Amino acid sequence: MSSSPLGVFGALPVDTLTTICRHLPMNDVVTVSHLDNELGDCVKRFIYRELKGLKVEINENESTIHFIHKDKRSTQLKLEGYAWEEVVANAKCVESLEMIISKGMSTSSLFSAFRKAPFCLRSLKIQIPKGGDKFPSKTYELRKRCYDLATKHRSSLRHLEMTTPDGQNAYANLNTATSSMRFTFNQAEEPAPSEEAEHNSSHTFVYTVFHAFLNVHTIKNVTLEIGSKFDPNLALQKAYQIALPYSGRPILERLTIEFGNSLKSMNEADMKQVLLRHVDECHVSTPNLQHFHCSLPHDEIDLSQEFLTLLNEPVTKSRRNPKSQPYKSTISLRTVSCQ
Predict the structure, then answer these.
(1) SS3 per residue for the chain
(2) Which of 31, 77, 179, 224 shows its CA 20 to 30 Å from the CA of 237?
(3) Residue 216 belongs to domain spanning
(4) Please, which domain of life does this record's source organism belong to (predicted)?
(5) Would you say residue 288 has pLDDT above 90?
């Protein structure tokens, strides 16, 4: 009688062996899968397919990939050797990926594995922390690979979040059933003159990755949530640019803008000017827009008929054709408690 490399464990039922493997560290799971062909098939069919999420952390001190199981347990492997690549190659049911990767780090093997992986992502989170950049060429490659990854999964993606080294954060939550999206934009701190180039480069990076994702979806209802730290006009402009690719603006039917609580301190005249400037610059590119709503973090603002007429004027002037879509704008105020 030939002996099994699993010893007495070879006589156990497959479901029992699977249960045992579920409680092993991932490096042990990989080792066990190589001991016996039947058990290897079992690991691939059950253990690896129970993985629902991945989290990657790469910096000067560590290079680790975390595997999140369907029961929320997390195991990890170092991004060394080939064990982690074997797991990724068989993790067909992964839906979410979070990457925290410092500038200047090598990412070729990582993205090569993701490019070949069989899963279809629904959620992608990219964070590039603040820090020095010893190898700018690798940072350029990282940005390009993030773009390619978002492009590969753009049809299945429903959530995309990006955080850049300067603190800019953008998050999109897409509902394809209702052709709607909620987009949150948190402005970075005001850059020093020496940081302008990096600041603009970060915006371009976020802009291109989001457009790779959004350009393939039909979105008719958009809510923009704006967090401003130094320039509300610029924050709204950048959020609008990222969230609404030019190709999607003609089909937009409803736009809601929710200004964050940080704008409570803005005086009435300046707040009105932000709205007037936005409508004047942007709404001529949305010929199908039928309802524009704005939520302001103010207790009282004088919403006179004169102001509302000014707010609607750029749109009404561009829609004099009787066949043009009807249009209306509304503004709501909300009380914000002092922190």
Answers:
(1) CCCCCCHHHHHCCHHHHHHHHHCCCHHHHHHHHCCCHHHHHHHHHHHHHHEEEEEEEECCCCEEEEEEECCCCEEEEECCCCHHHHHHHHCCCCCEEEEEECCCCCCHHHHHHHHHCCCCCCEEEEECCCCCCCCHHHHHHHHHHHHHHHHHCCCCCCEEEEECCCCCEEEEEEECCCCEEEEEEECCCCCCHHHHHHHHHHHHHHHHHHHHHHCCCCCCEEEEEEECCCCHHHHHHHHHHHHCCHHHHHHCCEEEEEECHHHHHCCHHHHHHHHHHHHHHHHHHCCCCCEEEEEECCCCCCCCHHHHHHHHHHHHHHCCCCCCCCCEEEEEECCCCCC
(2) 179
(3) 162-338
(4) Eukaryota
(5) yes
